[in-house]
Amino acid sequence: MAVKSQSPPLHHQFLSTTPNDYTSDIESIDQEGPESLSNPTPFMENTEQHHHEDQKSMKNKRYKFLLFINYVLLFVGSVSSSLLTKYYFNHKGSSKWVSTWVQCAGFPFLIIPIFLPSLLNYTERKPFTDFTPKMLCYSFCIGVMLGFNNLLYSFGVAYLPVSTSALLLSSQLVFTLILSAIIVKQKITFSNLNSVILITMSSIILALNSSHEKPQGLTQKDYFIGFSCTIGAGLLFSLYLPLMEKIYERVYCYGMVMEMQLVMEIAATVLATGGMVYKGGFSEMKEEADRVFDKGNTFYWVTVVLSVVTWQCCFMGTAGMVFLTSSLTGGVSATALLSMNVLAGWLVYHDAFKGFKIVATVLCIWGFCSYVYGMYIKREQEEEAKRRNSSGGTTTELIPNGNRMVV
């Protein structure tokens, strides 16, 4: 991904300009292409006049707080949604479409982060300001892809132990690195390549040693379906990350990220709802709650509601991480949490956790630590370069450059 050191941060500008300023500037970007960002304009000159104020309010305070909040959302959402999904299937819930539907049906919760800042006068920007038809189209198409990803994930977790499916999903990281290099020109370094190799090795070790963990009564065919669907879900997710990073290059504030996320989740919900209607999912849901779920009606609906909430936390955190950092960093962060899912599956559901699975988990954590250490070294080198040459320097992953962390 190309460095844009000459470009002032886009999402700082909403503090110092009016919505009309944004409309004209975004139209200019659409006509001239991303390259126009590298040339000074009156819009950017206006931002430069408020550069110090913007850095203090966004980079030093709001930016770090927002980054922390998205890490928390990703952590809580990833671990909780994984455990709740397995809880649903463990207690005789069996509908893959219900499991798919709850992953996106919580989109109304996104109204809170979209409209609350405006209602509290936290920002002058009004919701859906500068939300162009092109952004709407992009969001809807990616939302449909996300819906298919949710369905594949549901099939995978229905047939595999939570720890096995979690570690298999780590294979998405190698796809994320490759697709990020192609789509957003992600620079491949020793640090991120080493991380991808280690985490991928953990998946291979697991795959060679996990066939004996089939749940009781599961056929070889169903196990193969679950294994394949989990890998497919990882592949689609790895495509989703760099595509969103590419689109976020023209997004200047976190509010717009949530607005796009709302459209994506609505599109995914339409797909899941269509499947529910076609397969009789809603009547099946009522039947499961009244007669099938062995924990009773109340626990069934509590499980459904909590799943809806935690899945939204997971997707909000993922979108925020991609926007604030990069697709690869977001992918690495999500993959690192898979080891937490493995440990949670062992603690809560007593999934087997020994031998090769321990080795695979250690490799996964080792890979993440390698990535973080590589970013730390690069950051130290960057800071040293800036001290020696105040006129410029390059940015590295997790080094804020306005509203983004670029490579």
Automatic annotation (TrEMBL):
One Gene Ontology term, aspect cellular component: membrane
Keywords: Membrane, Transmembrane, Transmembrane helix, Transport
InterPro entries: EmrE-like, PUP_plant
Compositional bias per record (Polar residues), positions renumbered to this chain: 1-26, 36-46
Protein's membrane topology: Multi-pass membrane protein
Residue span of region Disordered: 1-56, 385-407
Basic and acidic residues bias spans: 47-56
GO molecular function: purine nucleobase transmembrane transporter activity; purine nucleoside transmembrane transporter activity
Major place of residence: membrane
Subcellular location: Membrane
Superkingdom of origin: Eukaryota
Transmembrane segments: 65-88, 100-123, 135-160, 166-184, 191-211, 223-241, 262-278, 298-324, 331-349, 355-377
Family note: Belongs to the purine permeases (TC 2.A.7.14) family.
Entry protein name: Probable purine permease
Protein's organism: Glycine soja (Wild soybean)
